[in-house]
């Protein structure tokens, strides 16, 4: 059931809620908390309500949606109450605030809070720089943000780090629960060796990748490198270096991962990207501060930012180095050919006795010239060093014979 209350007040909304409760038999004691969703009015509003409805099936609650409309409009409050099948296991109150009222969300929320029940605030899109200092954030026990939903996720995560307060958390951190569980279980299997280094690879705009690297740096106290892939790819892989071999968890397609470790056969594991409702359900299970998330944020500066790679499986630097070495070797062989011709040139021959000596074109030609063991081949080689089309002087011929004898 959906009831619209245009151009209304919070008192009228509260009165209507009591009336519906009396008619439907629903009591406030069935709600365990109040979930306040702060967002801009639009498509994101309905997506957040759907996620909250799914979460309410595990955590029955009252959902209050603060949908901020255009601030240039006249001050007005349009309310909508959803109960029954349109609200999951909760009751949903959507408050659309226009004009100056859009910045007064806290004053509109307070009259509708459940008495003696904790408050959880969720910003599914852009969140304030310091959620704990926001008027709605000050009402909440837990404050949930989503750095991945902001325009610059990495910058948003850095802001979360500097403004962290007890009770803050982020859905980018919640999406790592499965990754962290698999890595922790892998280290519980033999051989029980210390991890010496780690490499975490993921999209350049993935805050979850940064958080996983920070978690490893905080609790393993090892050097951690964060490698970047093109934006939009999310988490890709984690490599933990140990003496007996590396532990690798790779997810190339965003749904199924492969866990590889020494002494164990490769295992395929489910690593689907978690939906917002699943992350929201997990965060609503606890209302105390998340110390692990706090330690991870503080360890982010320890992570070494490595280069950006287009495809993590390719070894581009090794191929490039081999090509350069081959080119350098070929140039060295070509450069040695003129020097050999010059060394065989007779000492007494003038510089203008003929055209310039032609360097051998390849190492293959040098091999053929050297393979000839008769004196005639050696003398002809000396003749080419003197010039073409002219007979060499007698001294040069005698010198050539001596050279031929020396080569024998």
Automatic annotation (TrEMBL):
Residues 52-160 form the Glucose-6-phosphate dehydrogenase assembly protein OpcA N-terminal domain. Residues 167-297 form the Glucose-6-phosphate dehydrogenase assembly protein OpcA C-terminal domain. Residues 355-375 have a biased composition (Basic and acidic residues). Signal peptide: none annotated. It comes from the Bacteria. Residues 304-408 are annotated as: Disordered. Residues 318-341, 376-394 have a biased composition (Low complexity). This is Glucose-6-phosphate dehydrogenase assembly protein OpcA. It comes from Streptoalloteichus hindustanus.
């Amino acid at each position: 059931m959906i009831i619209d209350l245009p151009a209304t007040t919070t008192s009228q909304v509260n009165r209507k809620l009591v009336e519906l409760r009396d008619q439907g038999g629903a009591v406030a004691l069935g709600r365990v908390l109040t979930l306040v969703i702060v967002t801009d009015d639009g498509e994101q509003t309905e997506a957040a309500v759907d996620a909250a409805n799914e979460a309410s099936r595990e955590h029955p609650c009252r959902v209050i949606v603060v949908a901020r409309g255009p601030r240039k409009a006249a001050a007005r409050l349009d309310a909508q109450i959803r109960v029954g099948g349109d609200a999951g296991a909760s009751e949903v109150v959507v408050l659309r605030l226009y004009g100056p009222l859009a910045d007064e969300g806290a004053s509109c929320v307070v009259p509708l809070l459940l008495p003696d029940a904790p408050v959880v605030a969720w910003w599914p899109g852009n969140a304030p720089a310091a959620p704990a200092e926001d008027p709605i954030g000050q009402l909440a026990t837990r404050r949930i943000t989503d750095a991945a939903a902001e325009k610059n996720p990495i910058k948003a995560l850095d802001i979360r780090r500097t403004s962290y307060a007890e009770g803050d958390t982020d859905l980018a951190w919640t999406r790592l629960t499965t990754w962290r569980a698999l890595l922790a279980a892998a280290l519980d299997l033999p051989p029980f060796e210390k991890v010496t280094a780690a490499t975490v690879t993921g999209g350049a705009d993935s805050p979850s990748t940064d958080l996983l690297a920070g978690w490893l740096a905080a609790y393993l106290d090892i050097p951690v490198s964060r490698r970047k892939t093109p934006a939009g790819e999310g988490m890709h892989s984690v490599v933990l270096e140990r003496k007996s071999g590396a532990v690798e968890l790779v997810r190339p397609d965003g749904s199924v991962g492969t866990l590889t470790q020494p002494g164990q056969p490769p295992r395929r594991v489910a690593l689907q990207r978690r939906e917002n409702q699943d992350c929201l359900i997990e965060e609503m299970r606890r209302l105390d501060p998340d110390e692990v998330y706090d330690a991870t944020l503080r360890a982010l500066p320890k992570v070494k930012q490595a280069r950006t790679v287009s495809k993590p499986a390719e070894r581009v630097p090794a191929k490039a180095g081999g090509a350069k070495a081959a080119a350098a070797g070929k140039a060295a062989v070509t450069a040695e050919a003129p020097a050999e011709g010059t060394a065989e040139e007779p000492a007494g021959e003038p510089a203008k006795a003929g055209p310039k000596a032609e360097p051998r074109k390849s190492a293959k030609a040098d091999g053929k010239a050297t393979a000839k063991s008769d004196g005639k081949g050696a003398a002809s080689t000396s003749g080419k060093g003197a010039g073409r089309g002219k007979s060499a002087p007698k001294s040069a011929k005698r010198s050539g014979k001596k050279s031929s004898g020396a080569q024998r």
